[in-house]
């Protein structure tokens, strides 16, 4: 019996992922798992971390009930636990899976406030960035009520702990364990000279703080929410906070964070 768990599969377009998807759906159908893309209990992503990010955004408004499980068809990722070679282990894991034992990682709520009062709210699993497309971006950065700095440069990245190993790391941010509920603000090519001053280093902000960026009233900002990019005009402010939203991973065979970091960036230690 599989206790009527409802499953959905999301894969990328690589040949290996397509084949793995076919194999896995065959096995799951033979085991009488139900397939449901509207209200799944477990979403299985087949591909890489990018695939899991895409799957997360497809179920962004159901994160309180959906659990995720990642199968990688390339290298071990940060959001993937199983390889395409252990598909029967995936099935065993699905049988054993217990929602009470799910692993939770924090997401950042991003609220974009426009000059006319319109608002957009999104949640990100890796990071959200703001940049100005043409010239130097100028923006005031507040930490809760305190006006911290006037940033000048290409832009800013605000990342989650699990996102700390992604874009954040490439721009010199620190790697943060996901049990540390914090947001990291990292600068993208800040301008620092006798006239302009920013902190110049990444900073890790506590769980209860809200980061607010008020960009100068220009018309060409580009905002990313993980892998998604949008161009916006008339932004008044952007608020970043940890509102308690998490992504849940099926607990089965979940690789520990530091093991992933070491395997992804260092490899075998002699
Ligand atoms: P992509 O351009 O294919 O991703 C870039 C790389 O980042 C891929 O190797 C991806 O792994 C890896 N990655 C994604 N999330 C990660 C995480 N939490 N920790 C460590 N590595 C991670 O784009 P994508 O696959 O759609 O992923 C979007 C993410 O890519 C963005 O959220 C951003 O963090 C990152 N990115 C990084 C840079 C950079 O470092 N310069 C530039 C653009 C985007 P997979 O191969 O397993 O997908
Ligand atoms: Mn990718």
From TrEMBL:
Pfam families: NAD_kinase (PF01513), NAD_kinase_C (PF20143)
KW Phosphoprotein (keyword) present: no
Keywords: ATP-binding, Cytoplasm, Kinase, NAD, NADP, Nucleotide-binding, Transferase
GO terms under cellular component: cytoplasm
HAMAP family linked to this entry: NAD_kinase
Task of the protein: Involved in the regulation of the intracellular balance of NAD and NADP, and is a key enzyme in the biosynthesis of NADP. Catalyzes specifically the phosphorylation on 2'-hydroxyl of the adenosine moiety of NAD to yield NADP.
Binding-site residues for NAD(+), renumbered to this chain: 49-50, 54, 126-127, 152, 154, 165-170, 189
Secretion signal span: none
One annotated GO molecular function: NAD binding
Cofactor: a divalent metal cation
Protein name: NAD kinase
Documented EC number(s): 2.7.1.23
Active site (record annotation): 49 (proton acceptor)
Species for this entry: Lactococcus taiwanensis
Biological processes per GO annotation: NAD+ metabolic process; NADP+ biosynthetic process
Compartments, as annotated in UniProt: Cytoplasm
Family: Belongs to the NAD kinase family.
Keyword Cytoplasm included in the entry's annotation: yes
């Amino acid at each position: 019996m599989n206790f009527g768990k409802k499953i959905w599969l999301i894969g990328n377009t690589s040949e290996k992922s397509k084949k793995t998807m076919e194999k896995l759906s065959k096995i799951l159908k033979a085991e009488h798992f139900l397939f449901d893309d509207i209200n799944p209990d477990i979403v299985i992503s087949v591909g890489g971390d990018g695939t899991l990010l895409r799957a997360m955004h497809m179920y962004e408004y159901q994160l309180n009930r959906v659990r995720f499980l990642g199968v990688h068809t390339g290298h071990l990722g940060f959001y993937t636990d199983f390889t395409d070679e252990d598909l029967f282990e995936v099935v065993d894991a699905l049988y054993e899976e217990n929602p009470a034992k799910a692993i939770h990682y924090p997401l950042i709520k991003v609220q974009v406030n426009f000059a006319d009062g319109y608002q957009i709210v999104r949640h990100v699993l890796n990071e959200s960035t703001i940049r100005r497309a043409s010239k130097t971006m100028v923006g005031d950065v507040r930490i809760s009520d305190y006006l911290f700095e006037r940033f000048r440069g290409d832009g800013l990245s605000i990342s989650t702990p699990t996102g700390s190993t992604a874009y954040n790391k490439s721009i010199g941010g620190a790697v943060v364990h996901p049990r540390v509920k914090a947001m990291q603000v990292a600068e993208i090519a800040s301008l620092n000279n006798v006239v302009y001053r920013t902190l110049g280093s990444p900073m890790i902000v506590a769980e209860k703080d809200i980061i607010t960026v008020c960009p100068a009233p220009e018309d060409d900002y580009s905002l990313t929410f993980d892998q998604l990019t949008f161009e916006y005009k008339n932004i008044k402010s952007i608020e970043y906070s940890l509102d308690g939203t998490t992504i849940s991973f099926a607990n089965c065979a979940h690789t520990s964070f530091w093991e992933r970091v070491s395997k992804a960036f260092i490899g075998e230690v002699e």
